[in-house]
Write a structure and sequence with these properties.
The complex is a heterodimer of chains A (about 325) and B (about 260). By secondary structure, chain A is mostly helical. Helix content of chain A is about 70%, strand content about 0%. Chain B has two domains: about 25 residues; about 200 residues, MetI-like fold (Orthogonal Bundle), CATH 1.10.3720. The longest helix of chain B is centred in the first third of the chain and has 33 residues. Classes of the chains: A mainly alpha (about 325), B mainly alpha (about 260).
């Protein structure tokens, strides 16, 4: 009885596969075991709620909030992991030490400057590309134009970072090219500088900016642009008065996403950064490798970074976005 | 309409798009080209070509083990993330559930927490529950990271689902579980497939969580990272090129399948 109902409603293309799957489920639903356990449970309101909400709520509380709660707890302890015979007491020392040493707070400031600059450059570079795909390309050509941009995205963080080294190293493509055409005698050291790190970061994250921007710009009705053009608005006016305000949601969520990703980048930092570009993730990491009794300090620093990053992103979304309209 | 758009911005935008694409593809192309270089050091010009590096990589036991290890972790974490993510999405769209916005915000939290922080908090978490670092911890970490993406994709699809489909099944005597398995799940399938493909790529690509949660066995990104830090050799280029070709074909295939499912 149930079988006919579902089949007619569903995709006809799945008909060939459906019967076996359906029989299996019908068998399950009619089995003695099912009828006296799950089947009985869903007939009561309590059972339905437990089945529906049980696992999701446990997962969210235990694994989305649990780790952050534990990190917060440990950040107030004097030592962790606690060795036998040692005592661990409540302390604020791990937070205080952050403000006392420039080698601790400077990397955080540097991280913020870097992430902000990278986000702004990415926005400026990616915006025209998103606009081109969303508005200039014919609708039938859009998937292909977008797909071409997505190809490097599948390469992964480490491989993309490694490929940037091929371009920027002392014997990399740029230096060899410049030497061959006679512009330079010795290679320009580009790797392990703020430049290489910024270049690598933008290369890594520009697609996180592209997708929100694209979907926001695509939603702007072309009739609005036509109407304003009819009324005499030039390209600049149209951009400033129509396209920019209407794509604000995309700008806000793209920037927030890129900023938060940038702040937490680790592998690219290790591979492309140098002694002048010690950012906060590197500082935090040093407390977890090697001297293991520094975990509470690392946890406190991670809490500082998490709260400042989320507050900065939240303020940005609130101030620029106005209402809560981002994709998150 | 076309006449109204002046030609100059149009041409400039087109040129910019292609320049941007060139920028995106150039480093990867250079990396691939250098994998054929017949010399021990990575630099231009390439000179003589060889396939020796590929032969070396394919016989490299460390590389093959890392591949299998990465694939295993990706499969396990994707399966877990798909089940949990779908479940959470079902909870969010269910009738009579309050605090939906809060549940959604908390469910997608791991997607907005910076990767480094997520890795460290998980490292601390597994130590407080006495879980050892290693395979289990990596799978857990990747699952936590993947779930939000499944939730978002499943939710998008669920919101476009006609409500009367489930009602019809209920009227015909299916209980909630049967209705879910036979109506909602098949309807969700294309979105879940896309979500799973995305999770596989996320897991294979992940470095920072694996770095903090892993034991001595290296996943693919860990192996390549260690080799890059150890010194340049065209062997790394060959290894990276192989991985790149496989993951890109996988991504293209996933894109193709989800797009076909969407247009039907």
């Amino acid at each position: 009885m149930v079988e006919t109902a579902t089949r007619s409603d569903l995709n006809t293309t799945q008909d060939r596969e459906m019967p076996r799957y359906s029989t299996l489920i019908a068998k399950m639903a009619n089995s003695f075991l099912y009828r006296h356990t799950l089947g009985a449970a869903v007939e009561t309101r309590m059972g339905r709620v437990a089945l529906l909400a049980g696992l999701p709520l446990i997962w969210i509380v235990a694994l989305n909030l649990g780790p952050i709660y534990q990190m917060l707890k440990i950040s107030f302890l004097s030592n962790y992991p606690v060795m036998p015979g040692d005592k661990s007491e409540f302390t604020l020392e791990n937070y205080i030490v952050f403000f006392q040493e420039p080698i601790f707070f400077l990397p955080l400031i540097r991280s913020f400057v870097f992430a902000t600059a990278t986000t702004m450059v990415t926005l400026i570079v990616v915006y025209p590309v998103a606009y081109y795909v969303a508005k200039v390309v014919r609708p039938s050509g859009r998937p292909r134009a977008l797909l071409l941009l997505l190809v490097p995205f599948w390469a992964g963080e480490i491989i993309r970072t490694f490929s940037v080294i091929m371009l920027l190293s002392n014997r990399g493509a740029i230096n060899v090219l410049l030497r061959d055409i006679g512009l330079i005698d010795r290679p320009i050291p580009m790797l392990y500088t703020p430049f290489s790190l910024g270049f690598g970061l933008i290369y890594l994250i520009c697609l996180y900016m592209l997708l929100p921007l694209y979907s926001a710009i695509e939603k702007i009705p072309s009739s609005l642009l036509d109407a304003s053009a009819d009324l005499g608005a030039g390209p600049l006016t149209r951009f400033r008065r129509i396209i920019l305000p209407l794509s604000k949601d995309g700008i806000v969520s793209g920037c927030a996403l890129v900023f938060l990703t940038c702040i937490g980048v680790f592998a690219t930092l290790m591979l492309l950064g140098g002694p002048n570009t010690v950012l906060f993730p590197e500082t935090i990491s040093s407390f977890f490798h090697g001297a293991s009794n520094k975990w509470p300090v690392g946890a406190a620093f991670a809490m500082i970074m998490l709260t400042t990053a989320l507050i900065a992103a939240g303020l940005f979304v609130r101030l620029v976005g106005g209402k809560k309209g981002s994709t998150f | 309409m076309r006449n109204l758009v002046p030609d100059f911005p149009r041409a400039a935008l087109t040129a910019f798009y292609w320049a941007f694409l060139f920028y995106l593809l150039l480093p990867l192309t250079l990396m691939m080209a250098l994998s054929f270089k017949d010399a021990n050091f990575v630099s231009f010009p390439i000179g003589n070509l060889t396939l020796d590096w590929y032969a070396k990589v394919i016989q490299d036991k460390q590389f093959l083990e890392a591949c299998l290890y990465s694939i295993g972790i990706a499969a396990a974490s994707t399966l877990a993330a798909t089940i949990i993510g779908t479940w959470i999405a079902m909870l969010i769209v269910a009738e009579g559930i309050r605090w939906q916005v809060v549940i959604f915000a908390l469910a997608v939290l791991p997607a907005v927490v910076p990767g480094m922080i997520s890795a460290i908090s998980l490292r601390i978490f597994i130590s407080t529950i006495d879980m050892p670092t290693g395979t289990g911890a990596i799978i857990l970490g990747h699952t936590v990271h993947s779930v939000p993406f499944v939730v978002v994709m499943a939710l998008t699809r669920l919101r476009s689902m006609p409500k009367n489909m489930v009602d019809a099944a209920r009227d015909l005597g299916a209980d909630n579980i049967v209705a879910f398995l036979r109506v909602t799940l098949p309807y969700l399938a294309p979105a879940l497939f896309g979500g799973m493909m995305f999770c596989v790529l996320l897991s294979i690509d992940d470095f920072v969580r694996t770095f903090f949660l892993g034991g001595y066995r290296a996943t693919l990104p860990m192996l390549i990272f260690a080799k890059v830090q150890g010194g340049m050799s065209p062997e790394i280029n060959a290894m990276a090129t192989l991985v790149l070709v496989v993951t890109t074909s996988f991504g293209l295939y996933a894109e193709f399948i989800t797009r076909r499912a969407r247009t039907r």
